[in-house]
Amino acid sequence: MKKIEAIIRTSKFEDVKEALHKIDIDFFSYTDVIGVGNEIKKSDRSYRGTVYDTSYISRQELTIVVRDVNLRKTVDCLLDSAYTGEVGDGRIFVTTLDEAWKIRTRIAGEDSLKGEDGK
Amino acid sequence: MKKSIILLVCLILTLASTLVFDSSAFGKDVDPSGTNTGNKTEIAAAKPEEGVSIGEVADLVGHNKVAINMMWVLITGFLVMFMQAGFAMVEAGMTRAKNAAHTMAMNFMIYPLGMIGFFICGFAFMFGGVGTLGTLGGYDGLNNEITINLFGHPFGLFGGKGFFLSGTYDVAVFALFLFQMVFMDTTATIPTGSMAERWKYSSFFIYGLAVGTIIYPIYGNWVWGGGWLAQLGTQFGLGHGHVDFAGSSVVHLTGGVLAFVGAKILGPRIGKYNKDGSPNAIPGHNIPMAIVGTFILAFGWFGFNPGSTLAGGDLRISVVAVNTMIASATGAIAATLYMWLFKTKKPDPTMMINGMLAGLVAITAPCAFVSVGSAAIIGLISGVLVIEAAFFIEKKLRIDDPVGAIAVHGVNGAWGCLALGLFADGTYGDGWNGVAGKVTGLFYGNSGQFFAQLIGVVSNIIYVGILGVLVFKLTEKLVGNRVDARAELEGLDIPEMGVEGYAGIKMDKNSETPLSH
Q: Dihedrals φ, ψ of B358, to 5°?
């Protein structure tokens, strides 16, 4: 059982979601995260005549828990679908999980990650 | 099934109503077109057998003339009152979410505070010696102007009648009070913008009373109450004296000078300037609200300028209204294009707002005296002027004005007064301030009028500047002017007001304050 945390571009969210659904990763959760970088770039923000950069980088972080058999294809899917080639495409982190439960059915372990159709 | 029964009942009722309200059901006296309502039977004749006398007709015509004027004064006054909502939305929209309740609360309480100050003594100081109220029926009880003699000429300083509106129990005075009170409150609410996000509420409270009781009314007396600036024409031959139709100097320059003094004394918001003196942007939290507020202000201005005839029967009001809207349009377009083409290459919504308001402020003094072409030029110049002034104030003087109040009301108030002295075309204002002939500016051959405008502007800056410094020094001693740094960083809403403007809504207070470096 692995937990994948992927920080991706906000603009790539829909592409990534669709790609994940295509490989039958049907459930994940996400949050809006703010990264603080040190990158000096030309800002396109201006307010009352002052060009400014908030130095806050808006990204989305997906949390996906998968069975070990699905790890490789999920990571490959993320690498492909979140890619633009520009600086700032994001990161993927993977950790090993010890336990998991599904609350309604009380099923534990890797089985809890299978969908209703047993996939 | 039930729903279709309800629909059927509605349909039957609607059809029935068209039958019931058929005019034939009411006999021959009904007047659906309105052409026959109101005729000679409205005039009560003293001797019905002899019919209505010419004297009775004349009395009613006179009464109706004053009634039209008074309706106009009251309704335009109500429009100006609503501008308070516009100011509140512009100022709160262009400041940060963490201070929203505080900014709104200042814009709210200035209305009652200023009003009570004006009621106590402001009105008496301003209009206690104004003389006959010509358009409102000729009441002449406000006749006590305190005057000193200098160089063999009288100088009217302030009025001395009508404290608490006592001794002036007359409908004309009450109409004038309402109209002039809402003008005063417009001035009073201008500095809450330039001083927003760091001004202690207790200091603001004292300021609110000071502006309504003394600061605004004294200068107002000099221009509108028969004081020495109005007398520059009769006493020194400078055109018609200082002429300010609806308040570029009396209202806006006064507010702008107070905004300047207040913002200078308070100092910039934390994070506004870097060590090298360059400014950081502190974006307002609700641009849509600021834009709606600007529309409310532009709407209220149709009371502000056309109402200042104090006469619904003075048909110049159509010229005044069109000049007002044309200048607001050229001001907004000029400001937008200037930012878009020459500055940050973005149209910049808050500068659009400042541009439209600058055009409105600048046309406020000359709106009744200039041609529509001149109004367009005055607005156009104000749109560029407001941006250059805002940049100068922010980058060179390093005075932090979150909403651009000084550039809009101060700089363009002065520009509007001077523009009158340049562009007045000699088609209106016969007998203004007791001087025969129509108001004429420098470009139409009367340089004296321009000098009268200049004197009015300079004396406003000196007088209001000095009183502003005195008031803010006094409040500094009594309660302190500025909140402490911690309250400012966390937002003034909880420490000053006790409740957040947006309770229960997550906001990122860190990203609202830029880091100085």
A: -65, -45
Residue carrying the six token digits 């534990």 = A108
Enumerate the residues of chain B whose CB falls inside 8 A of the CB of residue A50: 279-281, 344, 394
The residue type of B474 is L
Measured in angstroms, the CA of B32 and the nearest CA of chain A are apart by: 55
Q: In chain A, which residues have their Cβ closer than 8 Å to the Cβ of B508?
A: 34
- pLDDT tens, position by position, B372-403: 999 999 999 999 999 999 999 999 999 999 99
pLDDT tens digit sequence for B192-247: 999 999 999 999 999 999 999 999 999 999 999 999 999 999 999 999 999 999 99
User: Cβ(B366)–Cβ(B418) under 8 Å?
Assistant: no
Chain A residue closest in CA terms to B353: A48
In whole angstroms, give the CA distance from residue A1 to residue A69. 9
Residue with tokens 């010696």: B129
Residues of chain B with pLDDT > 70, as a percent, come to: 97
Residue A85 CA, chain-centre distance (Å), reads 17
User: In sequence order, what DSSP letters do the residues of B34-100 get, joined into one string?
Assistant: STTSS-GGGS--SSGGG---HHHHHHHHHHHHHHHHHHHHHHHHHHHHHHHHHHHHHHHHTS-GGGH
Ordered per-residue pLDDT tens for chain A, 119 residues: 999 999 999 889 999 999 999 998 888 999 988 877 665 566 778 888 888 876 677 889 999 999 999 999 999 999 999 999 888 889 999 999 999 999 999 999 888 887 655 44
Q: Which tokens in the block code for residue B168?
A: 């002036």
Kindly determine whether residue B344 and residue A54, on different chains, have CB atoms separated by under 8 Å: no
**Residues paired with residue B153 on neighbouring β-strands, in sequence order:** B150
Beta bridge partners of A29: A63
The structure tokens 């679908």 sit at A81
Cβ atoms of B321 and B306 within 8 Å: the answer is yes
Q: Which ranges of chain B have pLDDT less than 50?
A: none
Cβ <8 Å between A49 and B394: yes
Q: Which amino acid is at B275?
A: K
The verdict on domain A2-39+53-113 having CATH code 2.40.37.10 is no
Please give the ipTM for the structure prediction: 0.75
Test B281 with A47 for CB contact under 8 angstroms.
yes
Q: How far is B283 from chain A (nearest CA, A)?
A: 6
**Domain coordinates in residue numbering, chain B:** 59-497
**How open is the CA angle B110-B113-B118, to the nearest 5 degrees?**
115
Task: Tell whether B497 lies on the interface with A, counting CB pairs under 8 A.
Answer: no
| pTM for the predicted model, two decimal places | 0.89
Considering the domain B59-497 in this protein, what is its CATH number? 1.10.3430.10
